[in-house]
Amino acid sequence: MSTQSAFAAALIDTRLPCPDGLRSGNGADPASRFAVYRNNVQASLINALADSYPVVQQLVGEEFFRAMAAIFIRSQPPKSPLMSRYGETFADFIAQFEPIAGVPYVADVARLEYLRVLAYHAADAQPIRSEHVSAALANPLTLGGLTFGLHPSLHLLDSGFAVVAIWAAHQQEQSLAGIGLNQGQHALVLRNGLDVEVFALDAGASVFIRHLNNGEPLLAAAENSPPFDLAQTLALLIAHNAIIQLTYKELP
């Protein structure tokens, strides 16, 4: 292993010794200076994960979270200088992390939190004015082929746990008492202006929005979804500036 590779590996894995061949310009002990640098790197990566996954940290406790994050860092060091993207596989890691197996919903809460990170950093897009959307919906001549372009920050999560309720409880420092933790929820994550918003959807509404996001015309997307409240779902998308493009497909 080259000195550079050994240096990078030892930065991530605190169990490894200071790499051979290091020198200090002022005569200080290289191992001591390396230990300080490594501690700073470790703390920065753990803090980056804590910033992205605050509810996960609240659920498991800060001490447990930092210990778990340190193990994650050893197994999956950063591959990009963009710290906002670090931890994209943290939820999958949590799902396989044996010490947390008794709290299975934590992994999906982590998935929800990472979608919020993605939404926050998504590209900006100008929403269609509500009156223009309403006019398009009211035109029977083009309604059949009407398609929506949705905001790039929009993401969906289907979970077997009450992830939206769990996440929301921790925004107001509420307990999880009274929440049916094993009652699955479908989450919509969307940035509206500068605010990242999270909503719970019916299963049919989640499927419908997926169809829209895949380019299906409005009516076809509704027909290909389980029963849901179409008017309520469209009102949600319009009110929260999720529709950024209106196009019309020629029907056969």
Describe the model:
The protein is α+β, with helices and mostly antiparallel strands and 252 residues long. The chain folds into 2 domains: 1-103, no CATH class; 124-252, no CATH class. Helix content is 47%, strand content 12%. The protein has 11 helices and 5 strands; from the N terminus they run αααααααββαββαααβ. The chain has helices at residues 3-12, 30-52, 54-60, 62-75, 90-95, 106-121, 130-137, 163-169, 203-213, 218-223, 230-239; strands spanning 146-150, 155-159, 185-192, 195-201, 243-248. The chain has a 3-stranded antiparallel beta sheet. Strand 3 and strand 4 form a beta hairpin. The mean pLDDT is 88.
How would you briefly describe this protein structure?
Residues 3-94 form the Putative DNA-binding domain. With 252 residues, the chain is α+β, with helices and mostly antiparallel strands.
